[in-house]
From TrEMBL:
Name this polypeptide is given: Actinorhodin polyketide putative beta-ketoacyl synthase 2
Keyword line: Acyltransferase, Transferase
One GO term of the biological process aspect: fatty acid biosynthetic process
PROSITE patterns for the chain: KS3_2
The keyword Isomerase appears for this protein: no
An annotated Gene Ontology molecular function: 3-oxoacyl-[acyl-carrier-protein] synthase activity
InterPro entries attached to this UniProt entry: Beta-ketoacyl_synthase, Ketoacyl_synth_C, Ketoacyl_synth_N, PKS_Beta-ketoAc_synthase_dom, Thiolase-like
Family: Belongs to the thiolase-like superfamily. Beta-ketoacyl-ACP synthases family.
Record lineage: Bacteria, Bacillati, Actinomycetota, Actinomycetes, Mycobacteriales
Domain (Ketosynthase family 3 (KS3)) ranges: 1-400
Pathway annotation from the record: Lipid metabolism; mycolic acid biosynthesis
């Protein structure tokens, strides 16, 4: 059974809405800048991928504003855009058979921080009743399901940066088991003091506060990543069902998926990223030479970049396939990262071009064909790679419609 993507919704630091995001991504416009949502005085890192033009009241009913964290507000907007893009209406599907699967890493950090401050400074009577679920990493699935009355199979995935791909893989499984339509993707928003401390604790944040030099995948000067907020939601369907209801467009097909978990470093066993990539290619029933572009994870941590580059060389050959890291314009979006990369890859195949990796000067040692300027090129097959903190590895193969 072929599983296809028919709708895309994106909320990202460099574009609110899919077409705005895509236009800015193609032109290499970065959303990484000095953080404005809280006072970063005293923090080692002060730049990130921040969505500065989002006013929730312009998109959501007033009753949802006090109930939801920023992460969920962004997820609701992206899901609504994806459903509209796929021309999904109450008449087009059976609500009891339409599902939702989302990924999140941090949950509602901003909401949780505010309510903890209320608890400590004002007392328990001033803590919002919505705190019981607004902080929860599964809340995006629930709120999307409620708002759009999607009563089919639902779920949530928590695997850090790999989560967006893992959520779409779970949607694909549901579709293959008979669910005709599902919303899948990932969203995170943790640009608040509590969230920022959590990011710093990983030890993987960049030490540079120059927005143009703070996140440099596969660059010799890379010293860490920049966190961001945002993500993407996609409408995924059985191809036959999508064709039967005469959808406006089919962006592409989810053709293959692979996932692994790294062994503990002290075991001496090698990282498992290569196995994830090879499993995705095997699942898609294609040879490495069929891949036209790789949307890489691009951790910008030298050891991690070295591992990913070695996998790409081993699977494809040195410089044999174009590689891009478009999250260099958004920062790493946690559970939203992989979903945004999937949306980007589908749009790239639609428009026959490869958007650039910005600011990086590719280090020769990696032997990669890193795309640093917009490249016009027909694309039939794309590979998206995502990794999560702690050892998660995922890879997704997409093919054009």
């Amino acid at each position: 059974m072929k599983v296809v993507v028919t709708g895309i919704g994106v909320t990202a630091p460099n574009g609110l809405g899919t077409e705005d995001f895509w236009h800015r991504t193609c032109h290499g416009c970065s959303g990484i800048q000095a953080i404005t949502s809280f006072d970063t005085t005293g923090y080692r890192s002060t730049v990130g991928g921040e969505i500065t033009d989002f006013i929730a009241e312009e998109f959501l009913p007033g009753r949802l504003i006090p109930q939801t964290d920023r992460m969920t507000k962004l997820a609701l907007v992206a899901a609504a855009e994806a459903l509209a893009d796929a021309a999904v209406s109450p008449e087009t599907f059976d609500r009891s058979e339409a599902g939702v699967v989302t990924a999140a890493t941090s949950g509602g950090y901003e909401f949780g921080q505010r309510e903890l401050q209320n608890l400590w400074s004002l007392g328990p009577d001033r803590v919002s009743a919505y705190q019981s679920y607004a902080w929860f990493y599964a809340v995006n699935t629930g709120q999307i399901s409620i708002r759009h009355d999607l009563r089919g199979p639902a779920g949530v995935v928590v695997s850090d940066g790999a989560g967006g791909l893992d959520a779409l893989a779970q949607v694909r499984r549901q579709i293959r088991r008979g669910t005709p339509l599902s919303v899948g993707g990932g969203m995170d928003a943790s640009l608040c003091p509590w969230g920022w401390i959590a990011h710093q604790a990983t030890g993987r944040m960049s030490g540079s506060n120059d927005p143009d030099r703070s996140y440099l995948p596969f660059d010799a000067q890379a010293d860490g990543h920049v966190p961001g907020e945002g993500g993407a939601m996609l409408v995924v369907e059985q191809e036959a069902a999508a064709t039967a209801r005469d959808v406006p467009r089919i962006y592409g097909r989810i053709a293959g998926y692979g996932a692994t978990f790294d062994p503990h470093p002290r075991t001496g066993r090698p990282p498992a990223l290569r196995a994830a990539v090879e499993r995705a290619l095997d699942d898609a029933e294609i040879e490495p030479g069929a891949v036209d572009v790789v949307f890489a994870d691009g951790a910008a941590v030298p050891d991690l970049d070295r591992i990913e580059a070695s996998v790409l060389r081993a699977v494809f050959g040195a410089g044999a396939v174009p590689v891009t890291v478009t999250k260099s314009m958004t920062g790493r979006l946690g559970g939203g990262a992989g979903a945004v990369d999937v949306a980007t890859a589908l749009l790239a195949m639609r428009d026959a071009l490869i958007p650039p990796t910005v600011h990086s000067r590719p280090a020769p040692e990696y032997e990669l064909d890193l795309v640093t300027h917009l490249r016009i090129q027909p694309l039939q097959t794309a590979l998206v790679i995502a990794r999560g903190h702690g050892g998660f590895n995922s890879a997704l193969v997409l093919q054009s419609a």
